[in-house]
Amino acid sequence: MSDDADPPDPAARRIPAATTPLARLRGREEWKFFAVLPRASRPLCTTWWVLTVLRGVLPGLFTVTVAALVSAVDRGAPPTAPILAAGAVFIAIQLLAPVHGQVSVLLGERLSRWLHDRLLRATTRPSGLAHLESRELADRLTAARDFDLGIAGPPMDISMNIVAGGLVGIVSGLSQAAVLVEYAWWAPLLLGGAWASTHWLLRESSIWGERDEGEVREAQRHAEYAYRQAVDSAAAKELRLFGLSEWTVARFTASRERLVDLRWTATRLRRKPLRTVILVLVAANGLFLWTLARSAQSGTVDVGQITAFVQAAMGTSALAFGGLSWALPPAAHSVDTVLALEAEMAAVGDLDAGAPAPVGASVVAAPGLAGAAGAAAHGSAGAAGAGVTLRLRGVRFTYPGSTRPVLDGLDLTVEAGTSLAVVGVNGAGKTTLAKLVCGLYRPTGGVIEADDVDLRTVDVLDWRRRVTAVFQDFIRYDLPLRTNVAPLGAPDAAITAALAAAGADGLTGLDTPLGRGYEGATELSGGQWQRVAVARALCAVGQGAGVVVLDEPTAQLDVRGETEIFERILRATRGCTTLLISHRFSTVRRADRICVLEDGRVAELGTHDELMARGGRYRRMFDLQASRFVAEETDEPVH
Ligand SMILES: Nc1ncnc2c1ncn2[C@@H]1O[C@H](COP(=O)(O)OP(=O)(O)OP(=O)(O)O)[C@@H](O)[C@H]1O
């Protein structure tokens, strides 16, 4: 097989340009925007369109009723019916406007919700992680979220209102232009064409087009990043300690100013076309009004008709450039990006995208899963899942977008039910190895086998049910302790047993929320949180996981706590296959075997005693840490 193939470039996955006019129309962002509205809410969308057409037609009707009134007065006929009709139309115009506004806002909110659902699906569904680490996709995600962030354009509920106003203008302009047909066939074409040309001449969206999109996205990304730093509590300590508050605000302001500049440039771009627009409008309206005046002089139109035609000529101006050209492009762009992201993220993030399973292989259940289900049924922390033998053969791995292999021909076997510690300098690839074993990435070369079954042929979700882990950057859920230990639920007995095994019993009640997000919540220390994360992994073991990956699980614990908890972990995971990553040799030495990772391969492998006797890298690292440790904490022997 071909190893270290270049990672897929998401930008290369764009859909080819459509060729037929209909396909081109359907490919337009504006088309897609209107096409998704019924999916956000069919009743609201129907009401919105009905109100749009009604509000568009009513001004034309008002013109006709007023003209009828003037004619009646001119002829000396009773004016009651035209007065009542004009009054009814006027009241309808006044009433429908706020109702339409409210419906627009509601529809905009529904659309936002629908887009959020799609975005969450796009980011969480792919089985791997590469889509979240791609800069190109991260930028597109930021652009897509603008309907929510409102950085480059108004938020969706406001956009929807502006779009509604713009569409009403177009329908009403057309209905007024239609009145002019009675005067002359060319009049609606002349005036309608002149006013409509402003949409084309004054398009400000050019600045947000392909040419400048990169700049806009970069400014959006920087603005969002600075904003997050300012509002997230995680960054609060360093911002204050290093005196970075003003600096962060300045960075946010600079990015926002850049966006405003880009928009101002777009506005300036309109200066030249503006002269043309004024010329076109003056010429068209002048020609029409001059012709109408001559008709009035010659007596070919009566006073009622003159009233109607002048009013209709003015009403046709509703066709002119307005909010539609301003609000629709960014809103439609967000929708288009959200729709495209689902496929693009899946193409990059799905583990099997572009990497077909070996010929003749079919997807099978994870090894030992039957045993896991049995253990899960018991629901006790003691019923550990069966371990599997993990075998890595010539494993290579290069991160997407990088050219440097992190793992480069790694051969390693961890026998079922044993523990293996992995040590190595920072950046040696220990966490990467853990992520590969967890099935979060596929190797770019070589094979990982579980009980002699190639993991590429195993359903990744099945496999992940067999594996549990404590990562360095584990999640601290702002939720009750119970949910933190068993997010998908488990019997209380299993949760309590897992907490006890992690030395976290007595921390707080199972129903007490952790973190600051809830009333009556308890805030834990770093070490206490780490015990909760360990309990989560041990609870999964009780539920049937047989492979345990521990990436610096005790880094935030004091030395006594670390020794004690690791003993507990080993006891609770007896029978499991355990991969331990740690820089603390007092923990590492307790593993059945230890491997030293260097240059993407195994440099040394053996038990603690074997490696010490060999006097190689492991021994040097161990002695270095032991001597420092003894110097600093003479009362705490390491051997
Ligand atoms: N998501 C990523 N994208 C690109 N490169 C990455 C990514 N994660 C890690 N790397 C690179 O891969 C290499 C190995 O990283 P890894 O986190 O596996 O090292 P480690 O041995 O666990 O280090 P440490 O002891 O510091 O935790 C590093 O050079 C790192 O820069």
TrEMBL record:
GO terms for cellular component: plasma membrane. Residues 390-624 form the ABC transporter domain. It comes from the Bacteria. It is a multi-pass membrane protein. GO terms for molecular function: ABC-type transporter activity; ATP binding; ATP hydrolysis activity; ATPase-coupled lipid transmembrane transporter activity. This is ABC transporter ATP-binding protein. InterPro entries: AAA+_ATPase, ABC1_TM_dom, ABC1_TM_sf, ABC_transporter-like_ATP-bd, ABC_transporter-like_CS, P-loop_NTPase, Type_1_exporter. The chain crosses the membrane at residues 48-71, 83-108. Residues 50-314 form the ABC transmembrane type-1 domain. It is found in: Cell membrane. PROSITE patterns: ABC_TM1F, ABC_TRANSPORTER_1, ABC_TRANSPORTER_2. Keywords: ATP-binding, Membrane, Nucleotide-binding, Transmembrane, Transmembrane helix.
